[in-house]
């Protein structure tokens, strides 16, 4: 294909973004080298976790004590995201909190998980928006690459297996797996007061 025949108009916002990226690149390059150096030599990784936690506390509706959100998690409508104590959202996850998402205490969300509270209708016109609050209760564990649809409630202590697509609410203390996610078995309760300390 002859490039001379291509006339692509690039809007001014894209040009400005590219200029900013070129200016900021050396600073981020330096940051990456500094991070690696400090982690290897001084073991200062905790400082970066603390800074990241502070950044997300300013960004989301609520981030509980000792909870962590990995720096590359994408959050849409972050003010509608509530996260309890000692919970974590792992790298490369996507959280669409437009309809509201509540994550309880001691929740483990593995990498590349998609949690949704918004979608499009399944009947025409498809361009509308459906919002429904999604709730993940205390002590739940969401496996890698799983998808939680809007309006779902994951019960206390429930486990969603890796790769599952959850289209219906999950009862407490059960394991679900598959596409769509189906009940596998119940799991025993445990004394939560022991781990709360």
TrEMBL record:
GO molecular function, one term: O-acyltransferase activity
PROSITE patterns: HEXAPEP_TRANSFERASES (PS00101)
The keyword Secreted belongs to this UniProt entry's keyword annotation: no
CDD domains named among the record's database cross-references: LbH_MAT_like
Top-rank lineage group of the source organism: Bacteria
Record's GO cellular component terms: cytosol
Coiled-coil annotated spans: none
Keyword Transferase attributed: yes
Keywords of this entry: Acyltransferase, Repeat, Transferase
Record family assignment: Belongs to the transferase hexapeptide repeat family.
Annotated protein name in UniProt: Acetyltransferase
Lineage of origin: Bacteria, Pseudomonadati, Campylobacterota, Epsilonproteobacteria, Campylobacterales
